[in-house]
Specification:
alpha+beta, three-stranded antiparallel beta sheet, binds coenzyme A, Aminopeptidase, four-stranded antiparallel beta sheet, 7 strands
Length: 196
């Protein structure tokens, strides 16, 4: 098994994994093509990372993150305005989805009482048949090393309130639960911080 930076050619597969594992996330609601383009922009950017764990030609897991997600999202929308618009067009009349998208975009700025790090881990997925073999921990530590190389010593991430196993995993790694965020009605997330 090797861990390597993702390539453009991995992004469709990673988008499918993302949508399969997080079907109710706001980003998944915009469709596989949208998520694929988003991950292609992660690959291109020095301020983000996207690593895959691979055995032979099989992708077993991936992790992504950003030095400053909110700035990246704004740049992404500006740079890919028409692609974003086309992806969002069929959903534009779903006001709940539009509200969710706004919530996601601004959640870092909304939670001002508790100061959260700008750096963020955005996704971590280990394929079901490869879970509980230490892969999630290895990728998490790869992300920590990447942040360290970029002179960052803490990052945040959101975990769906219903993802109890993931919460156990992060708490096992020593992550601290900071707050519960209601991103949209019935869509609660726990915001964790990891310091190193
Ligand atoms: C959460 C996830 C990333 C964990 O990855 P993993 O490779 O299975 O985790 P590891 O094998 O490194 O586990 C390390 C430790 O975390 C804890 N842990 C991991 N999964 C757990 C689970 N399902 N239940 C309880 N504890 C768990 C255990 O203490 C485990 O050590 P142990 O196996 O020796 O008991 C993986 O299950 C996953 O991708 N799930 C689906 C997507 C997801 O929920 N992602 C996170 C959302 S932000």
């Amino acid at each position: 098994m090797i861990i390597r930076p993702a390539k453009n050619s991995d992004c469709e597969h990673l988008a499918i994994m993302h949508v399969n594992y997080f079907p109710s996330s706001t980003i998944s609601n915009f469709g596989i093509n949208f998520v694929k383009i988003l991950y292609e922009n992660f690959v291109k950017s020095n301020e983000n990372f996207l690593f895959v764990a691979e055995e032979g030609s099989e992708i077993l897991a991936f992790i992504s993150g950003s030095i400053d997600l909110s700035t990246f999202q704004k740049k992404f929308i500006k740079k890919n305005f028409f692609i974003v618009l086309i992806s969002l067009l069929p959903k534009i009349f779903d006001w709940r989805l539009v509200l969710q998208a706004v919530e996601v975009l601004f959640y870092g700025q909304k939670t001002t009482q508790i100061k959260l790090p700008k750096a963020e881990m955005t996704s971590l997925v280990v394929e079901e048949k490869h879970q509980r073999k230490g892969l999630g921990t290895k990728l998490f530590m790869e992300a920590v090393d990447w942040f360290k190389r970029n002179e960052i010593n803490e990052f945040r991430f959101a975990v769906g309130k219903n993802l109890i196993d993931a919460q156990k995993f992060y708490e096992h790694l020593g992550c601290e639960k900071m707050l519960i965020l209601e991103r949209a009605k019935n869509k609660k997330s726990l915001i964790y911080v990891y310091k190193f």
